[in-house]
Amino acid sequence: MTARRADLLAATVYTLLSVLVLHNQWQHLQSQYLRFSGQDQTMWEWFFAVTARSVTHLDNPFFSDLQNAPDGVNMMANTAMLGLSVPLTPITLAFGPAATFTLALTLGLATTAYGWYFLFSRTVIRSRAAAGLGGLLCGFAPGMISHANAHPNFVVLGVLPFILYLLLRIADAENTRRRRHAVVLGLLVAWQVMLGEEPLLVFAVAVALITVLYWVFRPREIVPMVRRAALPVLGAALLTAVLVAVPLWWQFRGRQHYSYLDHNLPGNDLVSLVRFPPQSLWGAAFPMDDVALNPTEQNAYFGIPLLLLVVVSAVVLRRRPIAVAAFVSILILGLASLGVALVVNGTETGITLPGEYLDRIPLLQSVLETRFVLAAVPAMALLIAMVTDRVLTAPASRRGAVVWTGALAVALVPLAPTPLPTADRGETPSFLADDTWREYVDTDDPGSIVTVPVPNPGTAAALRWQVDTGLEYRIAGGYFVGPSGQPDGEAKYGAIDRPTAKLLGTAGRTGIVPTLSDDQRRTARADLEFWDADVVMLPPTENQDALRDTVDDLLGRTATEIDGTYVWDVR
Hints:
Elements (H helix, E strand, L loop, with lengths): L2 H19 L1 H5 L4 E3 L5 H18 L5 E2 L8 E2 L7 H4 L3 H7 L1 H26 L5 H12 L2 H6 L11 H13 L6 H18 L1 H21 L1 H35 L27 H5 L18 H13 L4 H16 L4 E4 L2 E6 L2 H4 L17 H18 L4 H15 L9 E3 L5 H4 L14 E4 L9 H8 L5 E2 L5 E3 L7 E3 L5 H12 L7 H13 L2 E6 L5 H12 L4 E3 L2 E5 L2
Parallel strand pairs: 7-8, 7-11
Antiparallel strand pairs: 1-6, 2-3, 4-5, 9-10, 11-13, 12-13
């Protein structure tokens, strides 16, 4: 088979597998959503829809006040993926943001797999089949499938292997096109910044780590490579800086900017490294307790057979410095992913880990520690692909080939992903869908619609309703990352909690109507004035009666019922 046909075959296989993983969502784009996405799919679809609106209205794509009225949202300080959402604007306008979201995930899985296949096949792997296996591991690893439920920014990673490929080409002594490659490198890094900065940062840490480890084993080889690459890479960095200067200024200095986001979440549970992923053939046949933060953060879940295969590969390749460097990097990145303290099967051991120090480093303190292990996956794939390459290309006994093929099957078949499940979206309240809201919002000087409970990261359906009605009104609260109001610039998920929002949230959770004071009623009026509210609406929801009585008491007036939604005109 020619190299070109092998490339085409790899791209085709990866695309078909991506469609298979997401085919449930493709079949029900408008009526269903990915079940394990939580509120994240709603947030992402809002980002894609707002970006398309910004493009068509020639608005500032780095900021929007359509949620979190009146303060708004810094889109660059969130995961808006403008490097993807802007070029996919025609898709969003023609088919809706759900189609864009699903397309992004599908292309993400396929292009990530192909990117690593391309890198492996052009560098250390001679066999296209072995490189294809390596790409398959990278693009469809358990962590990738987990993030495919909700996080396009950690699925669309196909640019990263091409960045590494260009770095290697620039450092190559035989390369006569360093300037051209440096220009392309600068463009790709700038694009990746606009696709996702956190994956780029984790990737950079992993590349730097392997470079240092390789230098330990081959100092005489690595030093000339660094010297050859220094000036071209510096030029690429300058080009990147010019291209992303304005977006990054908005991110760190524009409206609603923040300094860092401390997730205050534990790292990977040690057990998660050896368990099989829940969203796999093995997980479907033999379900076990999930020890991850949530179904979208199952970043490890390699299974014991795969880990043993990696160890065996490292032993077989122990005389190759790149293999040793890759294996040591896997250990270090796996340790970093465990966070600041060791947790074993849900039990805190009290043992402090190196993550305690990583958590103090600027930029790294905003990275979710569990995601460091994602950077170990390409190194794992490299080791397995290198041994497979040796089996396929070097003279070997048939018995050895059979044993290795069997080992691959035992390690990889249980990890094969199952199609991601979906659930019904629910309908948009008729008060909004039928445009009745227009009777309550001043079109000449529009304020905002306050939904009860006030939208937050746990209850973000109001963003979907806003998209369904054409993004023609603003809402209070929402789901995004913004400043917390702390003097050190720490961020938080959702709006800064106002007293009325917290009071309504408590009533919605408990179903208990609170006894209100005159101060709380005055505070409610002040909060409505802050939100620039035109109307308060309570759609059908859990504990709706308790919430209605609470708002009636807060506002001193009785709600108007419209098709199951209670409405208070507060203009």
